[in-house]
């Protein structure tokens, strides 16, 4: 279903229809973009590839919104909820006709602020107050219910051989779980389903005038129903669930948890919790069955499921876009955004941005950064229910891969979607199987199996096994190693600058890939024999043999080549040539302007000289210290050049010299390989070490200048939750018993900071020499 011919909600500038509100011409692609059209419903990421490639922020005259499609831009908008307010998140995208308004008024419909569309400072106070039921410890109580529900639903279809999974299970299970989580009685599920479809159409869809009136009736009844349930709950709010919890909190914070809020969240919460999860499950199963080898890989090793869930949410998420409004004149990338501009930030497109995800259209359940997807949003408003959703998705996949590993999609079916700008999931998902082959008929034992569920944020995916195909000398003290998938499968896509983690005799070491990204059957790395080796390079040089099988994670790219530069300067020192050579190859293939400066001791000790000379000829300058030719970094980089980017990989003194020489260059001109996570990437020179005392156990944990409190607690085996790890979301808060905090988060209010009674452990530190936490 699509509604490409519906009347546009808004046009560009009314006086100059061919230009956007900033006066820039609207491109043909931008003018044609229709978020209600089938192509966007079916494949939101694919339908916006043109935008990611060439026009990442554009004005859509049909929608009256600015559309943002690249990963970094979408994340930046989510991150700054002050400049980009979420207040329009639940606004009706299609203006309501008078008749429908009258219907809504008759029901006293007054859906206003919930959490998702509330501004600061109220939002964060409310979010923190209501967080408790979402913590992993609390969520664990829901696991038996989810398991039982999924099993009962599979029981009902297991002998039939054919089912519409949406109808038979994927809708009911998340709805029942959602009601249970909210503490709402499970009566009238069919009615609730009708209501929530109406709410989606009403808020995010493009109903015709006739449909609007019918939808308004359902929305009005939904509103009344939510109010009645709330009234009943108020009479006895002692029961379990998020809503009674909120009601019990109300007397303590009446200005934060208002009556209007409770009524709105009751209605919005039902949709937020189940529609999203039902769609996510249907998308995931469809995606995995369409990629049969991946489905079979999961059936063979169910430990892959937690990361498979992340990969499915990335590849085929159930929220395809979300909304924000600019509160001031601002910029996204280099596009001017006027105050009041409405933004459609397309998470599905961001999740397929090749600048962030290598081979983004492929499904790789071992993908290292699958969990970086933006399907749950990001920052202060990031989905609070994400771990409940993850739990449900894991259990659904566990049960189906155990009991119906032989199921397949009914061939030839066409998938239909409810046309709307935000949610995405097929309305029906037909699968079939031969019941005679059901594993439980021959092995009833499998029904007793209870697989563990990973609650909380995603952990690292499982490694894959690779075989060492060849070990060849590359230069003095350097070997080149060729690796292939141990099961003969193609290896994942990667881009220049990517590295893999290899487990070598109990150690994990990172190596940049230096072969040809188009060769999916092998990877190449080069390893220098380091006299100061703590084991990794020694192991490679002394023990590794052809035919060995190693565990490998990745690839991951912390050092991507920005295709937008006018000119590239590549600087490599010694073995630092490994990521640089692949970047230079890519620059050459693109016909870009570039030059390689490669420093080493002597020609004999420098890897890849033959390949570099052959492929890069006069774009290569070599510096050999043994022969007295040295690179004068300060001279080379004396003049900042507009549009030039510098990529450097080499020893620390080389990185320092480049940093020193480019102080007067634009901030993002220099790109450096970084193997550390963002968590560790703050400047130790600006921090001091201190002690954290734990009030409950009396333990004292030292936090060095280059580590966060969160990192130090975790290293000491103490679990603290975290999400954004940038001081935005409030997840890592812990109570402080004593000591002054150097607050660096965006979560606490001024008054709360002054009290020093809690801190965000991902970013804030002690002001003095120690601090005591209530842990
Ligand atoms: C917010 C997606 C499941 C409760 C959000 C947002 C998105 C989202 C995109 C807005 C994020 C932002 O503005 O940065 C999803 C998806 C789900 C899911 C894809 C399933 C796969 C759930 C469940 C619950 C839930 C199961 C409740 C049990 C919430 C709440 C917020 C929210 C309360 C508002 C948070 C805030 O504004 O502080 N979700 N959600 N969600 N979600 Fe979910
Ligand atoms: Fe988000 Fe610390 S504030 S993890």
Number of separate strands: 28
Structural class: alpha+beta
Average pLDDT works out at: 90
Strand order of the largest sheet: 14-13-16-11-12-15
- Heteromolecules bound: protoporphyrin IX containing FE, FE2/S2 (inorganic) cluster
Strand content: 15-25%
Helix content: 25-40%
What's the topology here?
Elements: H1 28-32, H2 38-42, H3 44-47, H4 49-54, E1 57-60, E2 65-68, H5 71-79, E3 84-85, H6 98-106, H7 122-129, H8 136-139, H9 143-157, E4 162-164, H10 165-170, H11 172-182, H12 189-204, H13 209-235, H14 242-249, H15 259-290, H16 292-300, H17 305-315, E5 322-326, E6 330-332, E7 335-337, E8 342-345, H18 347-350, H19 386-403, E9 408-409, E10 430-432, H20 439-442, E11 464-475, E12 478-485, E13 499-504, E14 507-512, E15 523-528, H21 536-542, E16 549-556, E17 567-573, H22 577-589, E18 593-600, H23 609-616, E19 620-624, H24 633-636, E20 644-649, H25 652-661, E21 670-672, E22 690-694, E23 700-703, H26 709-715, E24 733-738, E25 741-742, H27 750-755, E26 758-760, E27 765-766, E28 770-773
Parallel strand pairs: 2-8, 17-18, 17-20, 18-19, 20-21, 22-28
Antiparallel strand pairs: 1-2, 3-5, 4-10, 5-8, 6-7, 9-10, 11-12, 11-16, 12-15, 13-14, 13-16, 22-23, 24-26, 24-28, 25-27
Helix pairs in contact: 6-13, 9-11, 9-19, 11-15, 12-13, 13-15, 15-17, 15-19, 17-19
Explain this structure.
With 775 residues, the protein is α+β, with helices and mostly antiparallel strands. The protein is built from 27 helices and 28 strands. The protein has a six-stranded antiparallel beta sheet, covered by helices on one side. A five-stranded mixed beta sheet has the order 1-2-8-5-3. Residues 1-12 and 675-681 have low confidence and may be disordered.
């Amino acid at each position: 279903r699509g509604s490409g011919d519906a009347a546009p909600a808004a046009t560009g500038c009314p006086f100059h229809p061919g230009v956007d509100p900033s006066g820039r011409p609207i491109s043909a692609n931008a003018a044609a973009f229709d978020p209600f059209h089938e192509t966007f419903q079916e494949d939101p990421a694919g339908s916006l590839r043109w935008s990611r490639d060439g026009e990442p922020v554009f004005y859509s005259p049909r929608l009256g919104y600015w559309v943002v499609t690249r990963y970094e831009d979408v994340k930046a908008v989510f991150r700054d909820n002050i400049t980009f307010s979420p207040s329009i998140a639940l606004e009706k995208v299609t203006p309501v006709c008078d008749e429908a308004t009258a219907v809504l008024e008759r029901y006293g419909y007054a859906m206003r602020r919930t959490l998702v569309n509330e501004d600061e400072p109220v939002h964060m106070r409310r979010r923190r107050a209501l967080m408790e039921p979402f913590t992993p410890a609390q969520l664990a109580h829901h696991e038996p219910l989810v398991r039982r529900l999924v099993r009962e639903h599979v029981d009902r279809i297991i002998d039939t051989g054919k089912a519409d999974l949406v109808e038979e299970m994927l809708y009911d299970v998340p709805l029942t779980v959602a009601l249970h989580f909210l503490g709402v009685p499970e009566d009238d599920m069919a009615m609730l389903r009708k209501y929530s479809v109406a709410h989606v159409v009403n808020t995010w869809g493009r109903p015709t005038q006739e449909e609007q009136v019918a939808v308004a009736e359902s929305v009005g009844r939904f509103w009344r129903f939510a109010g009645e349930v709330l009234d009943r709950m108020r009479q006895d709010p002692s029961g379990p669930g998020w809503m009674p919890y909120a009601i019990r909190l109300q007397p303590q914070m009446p200005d934060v948890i208002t009556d209007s809020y409770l009524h709105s969240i009751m209605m919005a919460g039902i949709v937020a919790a189940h529609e999203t999860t039902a769609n996510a499950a249907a998308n995931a199963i469809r995606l995995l069955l369409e990629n049969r080898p991946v489905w079979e890989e999961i059936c063979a090793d169910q430990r892959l499921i937690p990361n498979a869930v992340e990969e499915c949410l990335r590849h085929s998420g159930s929220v395809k876009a979300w909304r924000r409004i600019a509160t001031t004149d601002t910029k996204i990338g280099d596009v001017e955004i006027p105050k009041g501009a409405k933004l459609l930030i397309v998470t599905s497109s961001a999740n397929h941005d090749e600048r962030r995800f290598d081979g983004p259209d492929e499904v790789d359940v071992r993908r290292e950064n699958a969990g970086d997807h933006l399907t749950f949003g990001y920052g202060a408003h990031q989905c609070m229910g994400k771990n409940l959703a993850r739990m449900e998705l894991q259990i659904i996949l566990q049960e189906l891969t155990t009991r119906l590993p032989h199921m397949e999609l009914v061939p030839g079916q066409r998938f239909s979607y409810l046309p709307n700008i935000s949610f995405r999931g097929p309305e029906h998902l037909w699968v079939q199987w031969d019941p005679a082959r059901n594993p439980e008929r021959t092995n009833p034992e499998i029904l007793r199996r209870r697989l563990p569920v990973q609650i909380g944020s995603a952990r690292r995916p499982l490694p894959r096994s690779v075989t060492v195909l060849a070990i060849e000398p590359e230069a003095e003290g350097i070997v080149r190693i060729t690796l292939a998938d141990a099961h003969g499968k193609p290896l994942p896509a990667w881009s220049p600058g990517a590295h893999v983690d290899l487990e070598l005799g109990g150690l994990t070491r990172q190596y940049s890939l230096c072969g040809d990204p188009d060769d999916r059957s092998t990877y190449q790395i080069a390893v220098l024999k380091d006299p100061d080796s703590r084991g990794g390079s020694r192991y490679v040089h002394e023990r590794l043999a052809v035919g060995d099988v190693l565990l490998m994670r990745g690839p991951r790219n912390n050092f991507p080549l920005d295709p937008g530069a006018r000119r590239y300067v590549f600087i490599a020192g010694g073995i630092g040539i490994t990521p640089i050579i692949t970047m230079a190859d890519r620059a050459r293939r693109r016909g870009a302007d570039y030059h390689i400066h490669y420093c080493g001791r002597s020609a004999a000790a420098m890897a890849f000289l033959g390949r570099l000379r052959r492929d890069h000829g006069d774009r290569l300058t070599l510096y050999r210290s043994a022969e007295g030719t040295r690179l004068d970094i300060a001279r080379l980089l004396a003049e900042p050049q507009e549009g030039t980017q510098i990529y450097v990989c080499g020893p620390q003194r080389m990185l320092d010299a480049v940093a020193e020489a480019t102080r007067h260059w634009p901030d993002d001109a220099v790109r450096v390989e970084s193997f550390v996570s963002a968590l560790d990437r703050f400047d130790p020179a600006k921090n001091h070490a201190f002690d954290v005392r734990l009030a409950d156990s009396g333990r004292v944990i030292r936090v060095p200048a280059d580590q966060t409190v969160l990192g130090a607690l975790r290293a000491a085996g103490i679990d603290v939750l975290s999400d954004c790890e940038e001081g935005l979301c409030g997840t890592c808060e812990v109570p402080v018993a004593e000591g002054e905090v150097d607050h660096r988060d965006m979560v606490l209010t001024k008054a709360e900071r002054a009290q020093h009674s809690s801190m965000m452990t991902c970013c804030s530190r002690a002001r003095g020499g120690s601090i005591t936490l209530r842990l």
